[in-house]
Amino acid sequence: MSTQTAPAGSLLTAHDLRKAYGPTAALDGAHFSIHPGEVVAVMGPSGSGKSTLLHCLAGIVTPDSGTITYNGRELSAMSDGERSALRRSEFGFVFQFGQLVPELSCVENVALPLRLNGTKRKEAERAALHWMERLEVDDLAKKRPGEVSGGQGQRVAVARSLVTGPRVLFADEPTGALDSLNGERVMQLLTEAARSTNAAVVLVTHEARVAAYSDREIVVRDGKSRDMEPAL
Amino acid sequence: MNVWFRDLAMGARFAVTGGREGWVRTVLTAVGVGLGVALLLVTTAVPNAIGARDKREDARTDLRFSVTQMPKADDTVVVAMADTEFRGTSIRGRLMQPEGDKAPLPPGISAYPKPGEMVVSPALARLLGAEDSALLRDRLDARIVGTIGEAGLTGPAELMYIKGVAGLHPTGYPVERIDHFGNAPEPEPLDPILLLLTLIVVIVLLMPVAVFIATAVRFGGERRDRRLAALRLIGADGRMVRRIAAGEAASGALLGLLVGAGVFLVVRQAASKLELMGISVFPQDIDPAPALVAVVAFAVPAAAVAVTLFALRGVVIEPLGVVRTAKPSRRRLWWRLVLPLAGLALLYPMLGQGNENGEFNQYMVTAGVVLILVGVTALIPWLVEAVVTRLGSGPVAWQLAVRRLQLSSGTAARLVNGIAVAVAGAIALQMLFAGIEGDYTKATGEDTERAQMTVNVPASTETSTLTAQLQQALAKTPGVASVTPPLTSAGVGEKPHDANEGASFTSGSCAALREVAKLPSCKDGDVFAVRGASYDDSTDKLAKPGTTLYVDPGYDKVKGAAVPFKVPAGLKDARPRELPTGGDRGGFLVTPSALSEAAGATMSGDLYLKLDPSNPDASDEVRTAAAQFGPLINSHSMVAMERVGRFDSIRTGLFVGATCVLLLIGASLLVSQLEQLRERRKLLSALVAFGTRRRTLSASVLWQTAVPVALGLALATAVGLTLGAVLLKMTAQTVAVDWASVLAMAGVGAGVVLVVTFLSLPPLMRLMRPEGLRTE
Amino acid sequence: MHPAYTHEVYTVCTVAPMSIGHTLLGLLESGPRHGYDLKRTFDEKFGHDKPLHYGQVYSTMSRLLKNGLVEVDGVEAGGGPERKRYAITEAGITDVEKWLAAPEKPEPYLSSTLYTKVVLALLTGRDAADLLDTQRSEHLRMMRMLTERKRKGDLADQLICDHALFHLEADLRWLELTAARLDKLAAEVASR
């Protein structure tokens, strides 16, 4: 399937990833590559290993074997601290739920990744407000996550994932807890924002209508990936 | 009634089948309640234990300090005190010489030991049998023919012997003739300061336990509320779920009763092996009054249920979840201040009473102290909230912790309540001890530079020979650096009976006399008058050559030997000098040739010894050597400061107790911390995913514990110092802050925070692993 | 590239005529069969309530013969088309292969065609999951187009596109479900 060398121009590539949790193999020879500005949907039935693939690609989980190259750098050669730093500055994350810190206000939540990078509070919150405006949730700045609706919360989460200007945005079932209308809106805002910043988006989803916002999809089944080049 | 039973039983089942959380919750509740119960039981048993001890002590009383001696009869016994000391522990010793068949037996023995035999307490038997007790064996070398039973002992660890002797002459204390043991002394009122101490110790130890129990029954409250909501969904009504919750709490408390009873029994058995302040108790003495036991057995579970229902008062459990009706209004200060102020008001009238009429109103003291300590628990939520809302934002870890505290300051405050009460109480108590200890630690005036021990030979015709022999023997005893030359002394007056003037009458060689006065010159046959000693104006009046004085005059009913002594014409003057025992001595100094034999027989001998500080057994060597010259020879170790060591053990005990309470509270902090972390595992994983440093999250956990604990400790220190000052004022002591103990308690508090944080780190790290991100 | 695409004749639980050829070809892959045998197997696996006519088998087979996709392997005494034994040719195998690999144009009521394809793939030992993935990809391509149009269009466009998207999504769900049940299906197909 894929070649050992990364395809030309790709930002993040993975080759022959294997990862087992105990006796069960979550990944069993998965490949992946993404270009800047590209939205790739990772699809597959539940338990197929798509979340594990995302976690490996984002450097949250180290695969048992295989290589992941980001921007010419080998992820598995980095220390945990370096990978954390990479995640703080180059990657953004949106999850299905449970990602906003309940005791921080929305704007503080959005500013959090910048603050983790050492940005001053005022400056971080100004940048946060900018992104909240783009995602049309700036009026929620002072509210706590518990006081906003699921769709609004998810948009806050998207704003947070974009606030550091990431090169890669990892979205794991970002609309999983939302109804169609809110889900569509979140996807629209997310992909638009990502395209405008030329960020790559790794979008894990099992929903076809969400995957339809991607440029391309790869299918993970039984830990093996299949790159579906558009037919024709 | 039936419904109640059913629901309570269901709650009880949840308490043990609620999975791991349920168990941890139940066990912690049980441990907390158990310790409280054990403490309560021990506390209620203490009066009985002391009573039983005192009763036996009274029953064996022998020496009466009576000035006249009863005539010899067939129902009398001569008793002499022959207490000694071995390695700093005192041994109660009695020489007994029954004078007829009907002589009364002291409690605990069935027959008198014959002369040259002795009976010993079990503890002394063990000590004598120990390998390194050779010095004691040599001293108490009579044959052991029996054991003193419990009836004759105050406690299992008491060291005591009764030795049979012959040829004792009752001359008054310490050798007396009696016809019965035991007396009915006036019931002495308990030292008010001691009463105060006891009350405060009990309150200080019990309050945090009470607070802990209150916290423990709230463990896992959210989880329980959810479970109760699920029960509502399948048709339980509001009152049913409340009863079920009560059942859950009560079963933890009941389990705690069992734990408490078990701990109590263990402590009771262990008590026989324990010796505190030289006091040991028999297990059977620790016997709480049944009524009190019943009260404890009822009150503790009832309190647990009450706390649970109280905690649920602002909560409506709906089928679809839990609604808190009590709107979290801003906490008000005024009523929280009422409690401690009311406590102070109760204590105020008693200021300074410790020294005067010495009466404390127990109820007012208890209520006052309890109110002040409860005031701490009321003030902390307000303080935590007030401070936390004002805290600015700092680094991310700080921000996370502060925001968390702002959202749920009540939970945080509840958790530190116990710590705060324990620390406040402990600080106050430590201050009280430190103050009282100052009183009890007194300079004895003994000069330990010149001598560390005195040996006293009672008056007899052989006193001077015996003293001289003893002096020689002691000079050769290991550990003795030097012995003063032998001196004998008695009193002297101008009349044979009821003299108006009295001075001391000392005899010895010139060298020996120089130890007690500055002599211009000295040869055998000289008599000196020492003028100018402190508190002595009699010598001048008596020292008139040619007058007859009487050595050992009688007073009141006591008939003295009253041996005439004519002040010689060649009376010389001497100046006083400081004695090895401190102070100085006036009166007459008589060289051996100037002393009549009759006068010599009234005088007792004294030797002053310097010991080799490198020999720890020196004083025991001396005692053993001296004992060879007769059981009535009294050896006394001198100390510069007579420090009442028992306060050390109380302080240590208090510190240990407070530390245990803090650890217990630390455990509950840890449990709630872990519970909170578990509920946030998704969030934690998400935070890790976007690059949060583990350090940041660990620091946030630390702050989250440290901030409320620091606030609690600050408040506790303030309240503790205030309470301590008030208590010291009550006992009329000078108020001084025992900073060492304040620091120690604060340190233990800080240690608890660190330990809790440290122990919650591994689970935190585990929860931060990306597995938490996997969606179900 | 996909000459088999026509739009008009789909009915529920019926296999389109041009697919009958591929289906019968597929059935022949497991070994030469008589015409009658073919009809019976077809009816069992795919016919359900609408069995094939002998005439349909005869005409289809003669077309396949003419195109060189099958050959006559032997004739049994008694004559008649159903007595002929047919065998698949190399060209026939390639044709089946191509047909299975080519995704169907995303259409409503596609399930019967897809079902036939899946079963045939299973019968002939081909990777049915692959087939489903290819089909999903095709569906997604269509959905991407619709999503793009929706993004640029007005509300009416959006509503129309959404209608199509929901239908396609339903198909995709069926694909997922089928993919998840392939093992079970394979066992069932093999047992019949």
From TrEMBL, chain A:
Q: Does the keyword Transmembrane apply?
A: no
Q: Which GO terms describe its cellular component?
A: plasma membrane
Asked if the keyword ATP-binding belongs to this entry, the reply reads yes
Instruction: Give one Pfam family, short name only.
Output: ABC_tran
A molecular function (GO) held by this record is: transmembrane transporter activity
- Report which superkingdom the organism of origin falls in: Bacteria
Residue ranges annotated for the ABC transporter domain, each copy included: 12-232
Write the record's keywords in alphabetical order, separated by commas. ATP-binding, Nucleotide-binding, Transport
Q: Which InterPro entries match?
A: AAA+_ATPase, ABC_transporter-like_ATP-bd, ABC_transpr_LolD-like, MacB-like_ATP-bd, P-loop_NTPase
UniProt cross-references to PROSITE patterns, sorted A to Z: ABC_TRANSPORTER_2
Q: What is this protein called?
A: Putative ABC transport system ATP-binding protein
Species of origin reads Streptomyces indicus
From TrEMBL, chain B:
What residues does the ABC3 transporter permease C-terminal domain cover? 200-311, 657-766
| Name recorded for this polypeptide | FtsX-like permease family protein
Q: Name one GO cellular component term.
A: plasma membrane
**Any Pfam family:** FtsX
Q: Where in the cell is it found?
A: Cell membrane
Domain of life (superkingdom): Bacteria
> Is the keyword Repeat assigned to this protein?
no
The membrane-topology field of this record reads: Multi-pass membrane protein
Q: Which UniProt keywords apply?
A: Cell membrane, Membrane, Transmembrane, Transmembrane helix
The species this protein belongs to is Streptomyces indicus
What stretches pass through the bilayer? 23-46, 193-217, 249-271, 291-312, 333-351, 363-384, 412-433, 653-672, 701-727, 739-761
State if Chaperone is listed as a keyword: no
Automatic annotation (TrEMBL), chain C:
Q: Does the keyword DNA-binding apply?
A: yes
Q: Which GO terms describe its molecular function?
A: DNA binding
Q: Which InterPro entries match?
A: Tscrpt_reg_PadR_N, WH-like_DNA-bd_sf, WH_DNA-bd_sf
Q: Which residues form the Transcription regulator PadR N-terminal domain?
A: 24-94
Query: Taxonomic lineage per UniProt?
Result: Bacteria, Bacillati, Actinomycetota, Actinomycetes, Kitasatosporales
What keywords would UniProt list here? Answer: DNA-binding
Native source species: Streptomyces indicus
Record protein name field? DNA-binding transcriptional regulator, PadR family
